[in-house]
Each structure stands twice: as C-alpha cells, then as structure tokens.
Amino acid sequence: MQILSLEAILLISLIVIALVIIFVDDLMTAVVVYCAFSFITMFLYIVMGAPDVAFTEAVIGVLSTIFFIMILRSIKRKTK
User: Fold this and answer.
1) Lowest CB count within 10 Å: 4, 14, 40, 48, which one?
2) Residue from 72, 62, 55 nearest 37 by CA
C-alpha cells in the first residue's frame, strides 16, 4: 500500500512538472524543470523495479539537459 501511494505522488508530480514546462515563459527555466522531470521519472522507474531503464533515463536526461543548455547559450535571444 505504501508503494502505491509513493507511485501516485510521483505520477502527480510528473503531471505538475509537465504543466510547468508547458506554461513557463523562460526557456532556461523550462530546461531546468525538464531535468527535474527526468529525475522524477528515473526515481519512478527505480520504485517500479526497473533499474536498467532508470539508468538509461538518467543518462539520456543528463545528456539532453546539457545539450539543451548548450544550444540555449549559443543562440541570441531578444529581451522584453
């Protein structure tokens, strides 16, 4: 019963994080929140008993976050 409540909390937090990513105005903030999404997803895979998928999610999450930050730093953005 305790694991089900932990999974429910993680799934609700994934929904909230996804909504924050959608509605945030700053791209760098969206990338950082995406990193949190990846971390919560990795933790959910560990709780569900899939450490190999969790490891893959961690690697892909870190690499994509680094890639997104490099791209955002290389483009010129207009300020309001």
Assistant:
1) 4
2) 62
Give the largest Cα separation in the chain, rounded.
Answer: 50
pLDDT band at 58 (very low <50, low <70, confident <90, very high): very high
Distance between CA atoms of 9 and 72, rounded to whole angstroms? Answer: 31
Residue 26 backbone dihedrals phi, psi, to 5 degrees: -85, 130
- φ, ψ of residue 50 in degrees (nearest 5): -125, 75
Amino acid sitting at position 71: I
Q: How many CB atoms lie within 10 A of CB 57?
A: 20
Q: Match 């990338």 to its residue by tokens.
A: 31
**Spatial separation of the C-alpha atoms in residues 18 and 1, rounded to whole Å:** 26
Is pLDDT above 70 for 10? Answer: yes
- What is the pTM assigned to this prediction? 0.79
